[in-house]
Amino acid sequence: MRHKVSEKYIAMRRGGPRRLFIMMSSVLALFALLAFSQRNHPDNTSPFGALFAITVAGAIGFFQSRRMSKTTTELESLIVETTSEGIALETPGARHVFSAAQVLKVLMYRTYFSPGIYCTGLQVESHLIALPPLEQNDAFIAELRLAAPHAEFLVRRQLIV
Fold first, then answer.
1. What DSSP state is assigned to residue 5?
2. What is the DSSP string of 66-105?
3. pLDDT of 78-104, one tens digit each?
4. Taking the complete model, does pTM exceed 0.90, yes or no?
5. Exposure string over 129-157, b if 16+ CB within 10 A, otherwise e
6. 77-100 burial: b if 16+ Cβ within 10 Å, else e
7. CB-CB contact of 116 with 137 (8 Å)
């Protein structure tokens, strides 16, 4: 069965650039408050320090926002599938297949406030592959239990995801 990334997770990621802008604006406002609270200090006569900080923060925010948008569009097209070959991760540009025999552990992350599986991690040899939340995480785990019965299935709880 083919599993797509959860629409709720995609919608949350689409709001990432807006949250980044709000966070960066808050941090810059805090720095400005701290910098200009000592107005009588002799080093606070030049506006170039504040201009430099705003430029650097803006550049960081711009590039992070662009990267978030690109990653979100890539996640929208990600398809995870359990096949006879193993676990397949498929994007429009590539298809990666991991043998089910290579899966050593399956980590299922849940939150304390939600009973459902939030996301899944697959330990393949010495690598940990983190999968985003899928539309039907429980169905994917059931298929994975059949495909890799030798793997150790562990549940991890997190307060905040």
1. B
2. HHHHHHHHHHHT-EEEE-SSEEEEE-SS-EEEEEGGGEEE
3. 999 888 788 888 988 888 888 888 889
4. no
5. eebbbbeebeebbebbeebbeebeeeeee
6. ebebbbeeebbebeeeeeeeebeb
7. yes
